[in-house]
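[09:14] KT: can someone run the structure on this one? pasting the chain below
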Amino acid sequence: MKGVITIAGYGTRFLPASKAIPKEMIPILGIPLIQYHVESLAESGITDIIIVVRSGGGVVEKHFAPAPDLEQYLESVGKRALLEEVRHLSRLANIVFVRQPETLPYGNASPALAARPWLTPGEPFYYMFGDDLLLSDVPIPRQLLQAYEQHRPAAVLATQQVPDEETRLYGCIEFKPGTTNVLARIVEKPERGTAPSNWVQVGHFVFSPEIFEVLNPTQTGKGGELWMADAVDRLAARSTVIAHPIEGLWLAAGDPLHHLKASIHAALRREDMREEMLKFLRSLI
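[09:31] RB: done, structure tokens below
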């Protein structure tokens, strides 16, 4: 199975930094967000990865490419740990960078169409948005792949519960009657008190090739964008789509404030940073 990571947005909430680099290259604890995604796929056995970019993709490509001069320097000064870390990046996976053509509409589903020529015909594929950080003992892709193997549906999407007062911020899952995991539709950002459940989509999917039967670049939705949620709704109307609860910490990182919060959460999970971070946070109170 191949994996697709979408970083084809403009990253407007991170301007001016995102003018020069994709927002997914902005680091959390010194590691670009995109690296967390690639590592989670590789750890789940997906080593053929398609990264769909709009602009600035050369920066991401360089990050995962070998760096002979840097490696030679690190070896000459005896920094073996850093040397292995740099070499690890170029050995993680087989990565193809695909530029999303301007002919496709803006939206989080367009990268799937851009990646389609590089996918294996007739095979399912993993699809993830590049905005958020997911920290878990078992990689999220592995959790979804296990659900896909168990049910063999048209698609599996990741879901987590949020407090009732936060449902208005997300795409909320409406389940088919009599089920607890079969998707009926996704209700985007429902008005307060109207959400069909407090289970929301997380932005990770396993799709069968059937997704391309309901994903058409002319079927744009809100704001004139091509939304994956709309395509998933159409898929759920004709086939089985499983909403699978994931175990892990889901951290939004798509704007500076949430990115900072994600960095703090990640630091608190690291033994070499936790105590110092707690000490710093307590000093601010």
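[09:33] KT: thanks! Residues 2-283 form a domain with the Spore Coat Polysaccharide Biosynthesis Protein SpsA; Chain A fold (CATH 3.90.550.10).
[09:34] RB: yep, looked fine to me
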